Amino acid sequence: MKAKFLILLAIFMAGCLTTPYRHGFDENDVVAPTPYHVEWQEKPKDAAIIPPGYSYELNVTIPRNLYPNYWNALEIAIKNNGNTKLFIYNIAIEIDGNTFKQWDGKEGKEIGVGEKKSFIASFKVSSPGEYRYRIGVYFMAASRKWYDYGCKYTQEYEISIDEYSEATNYKFHKNYYVYFDKIKKLVDPCDNIVKQRANIASSGYGYGYNIAKVCAIFDYIKDNMKYVNDSDDKDIWNSPSVALLNGGDCEEFAMTMAAMTMAKGGTARIYMTDNHAFAAIYIGKDLGILDSIDSYYHAKLSYALFEDKLGYWIVADMLSSFYLGCLPVGGYATGESNNERVYEWSIATNNLYAIDVVG
User: Would you say the pTM of this structure is higher than 0.85?
Assistant: First the structure.
């Protein structure tokens, strides 16, 4: 019996050594999200005669890298510190002599007393270098009736736009068995905690599997899951359900994004570099779906995608930036693209592993 077991083990090990890559997705295995247009609240009527007063605090988050000729995004967080409710109906970025308004000013978000809400604003410049910019907030305030204050600008700030870099000549691996088997064992989209959190994150965005739900899952993980470094230099991977409760590092963030998306009916991959991991979500073969992501964030954005024979996969790395499709950690633009919506990009690594997450 022992000899038979050893023979079987030797055959298995020989198979791993000669074919260290697993079979991944076929055409029939992938599911693309449907488009979904997200609407905000309609702008209230300006009815107050006397200004009711207001007080708010504004904070700007800038991504790791910004590039010319792409739509660069900033996250604008506004906290209502006053005694009146606020309604934000547009954000403007004034830079390099140009003003970029984010939407048409007919809708927006209400911010209650003590609340904080975030907006994504984008702009584009034509060349690398140092720039000065300021943020304009179009808002209304109300104790009973709404009063329109129009646009109030911040002071000027400095921002750097990076130059393009040469693409990295990394080695690409598809479904390497060590990572494939490990991820397959840990990612369970049918786990009760995973399903519950996926439902909470995506509620209010219609029926079926759509791209707004993918964005909402990305935002939920970004805002609610705690980043925790591995202790004692031990690279221990926990399941998404454990990570949702206790936090995790990049592998857990990537697997959790994959698991929650799969719980809603989607298809996911995990990409691994020499020192980082992030998820990518299948979005089909039609880049028109990017318009729906713009509508979710109410901003014009540029996106980091992978493309293969199955279609497009959008990067989902909430440890890099604040929107679905941002460049991942280690990612950088290598030149101007024919399509300003899609980055021409590469990633700093010696090896890049793409792992299909099969459920």
Answer: yes
